[in-house]
Amino acid sequence: MKKTLASVLLLIVAVSALAQSAYDEILENPQKAGGLYYLYPVTTSLNTKAPKGYEPFYISHYGRHGSRYLVSDEEYSTPYEIFKKAEEKGVLTAKGKDLAKRLEAAWEDARGRSGELTQIGVRQHHDIAQRMYKAFPQVFKGNPTITARSTTVMRCAHSMAAFCEGLKELNPKLDIPRESGRRYMSYMANTTKQASYFNRGDGPAAKRTAEFEKEIVKPERLMAEMFADSAYAAANIDARKLMLNLFRIAIDLPNTEAGITIDDIFTPQEIYDLWQFYNYNYYNHMSNPTSAKGAVLDNARPLLRNIVESATSMIESGRNGADLRFGHDSCIVPLLGLMKVEGCYGSTDDPHKLHEVYADYKVSPMAVNLQLVFFRNKAGDVIVKLMHNEREVSIPVATDIAPFYHWKDVKEYFESILNSPETTKESL
């Protein structure tokens, strides 16, 4: 992709001032076009010193699994078979033959590993855990109460294992029971009927997404560069579907250690446009499109309730420790929106304006995590701060100690969300 960077400059003038922000970010770091596949970007946790007299004692955490392979073998094998067949027919260009070799190597590396955590994903969670421990050692002192729970999907359980291993390397005496059971799925990976209705295959979100795909995904140049016989390509290949599949492979390959890249097959404009499409697609399914009227965010209500109840229980116990939860982007993205965490709540139905309020690579890269870090003083007063990807973030709660908040105010705010009416099917 480095070869394409210089030509991006030629396109900036054609983009509006607000669009330039997202465009310039992708110019500076093209891997951000990976969106939900973007590698976890944090290597140093940033922390403001707590007010005098307050010490950390509890962390409430939710983390998405780390870097993984694409979720199905077919996402690798299908384009490989398309190019293999075309090569046998003698209809590939030199560039097409080169891509065919790389697709074969990518498929060989990924075969039978679809959806699995990669070693990069393992290291991400191991390192996040160690930074957490070093930043807030008081949470883990003595005999802390720690829970670790994941969804029943293996990449989440493996992320949990890597995280716990990272903690125990720094303190082998820690007792961290690890659970991955269906009994926790009601809040770890909830989907409401209303959200399912909104995101149904024939629903308004799907229709708008399909319309935007037809408008912005333009495979003609790519097909012409890869296939020497245009009639063969037109008769045998769904060009738009293939382009989207190739882009998914391209943006996920950095999450593996295969040492393969295919991002050079796309122009800078294609990279940006494909990012726009996937940003809009995932946003509709996981965040706050205006027409959803909060239905998608409602998926996170049980998780928010568990966070409030678990924090209340820990505070009342007088103990120290952590609740560690491991799941998916489809869980943490609605949670961030429901809480109205800065940068994670923008609302629009217009795909052309979405970049103004929402960028998936900022909200949910691989291993995205939310940490609520609690502090107390000798008088028992409790304050809290929120960290999104180990960066302090704000929510719409008044505070005189920013970036910290008085827990009583945050709890009242969260409870007001939980007590507000949910979106009904009839209102959609």
Short descriptors:
8-stranded mixed sheet, 17 helices, 428 residues, 46% helix, Rossmann fold, alpha/beta
Helices and strands in order:
Elements: H1 5-8, H2 17-28, E1 55-64, H3 74-89, H4 94-110, H5 119-135, E2 145-150, H6 154-170, E3 178-179, H7 185-188, H8 193-198, H9 204-216, H10 220-226, H11 230-236, H12 239-252, H13 268-286, H14 301-317, E4 321-327, H15 329-339, H16 360-363, E5 369-376, E6 382-388, E7 391-393, E8 405-406, H17 407-419
Short note summarizing the structure:
By secondary structure, the protein is of the alpha/beta class. Helix content is 46%, strand content 11%.
Task: Describe the protein in words.
With 428 residues, this protein is α/β, with parallel strands linked by helices. It has a single domain (2-69, 115-206, 268-427), classed as Rossmann fold, CATH 3.40.50.1240. Helix content is 46%, strand content 11%. The protein is built from 17 helices and 8 strands. Strands 1, 2, 3, 4, 5, 6, 7 and 8 form an 8-stranded mixed beta sheet that branches. Helix 5 crosses helix 6. The radius of gyration is 23 Å and the shape is globular. Residues 1-19 have low confidence and may be disordered.
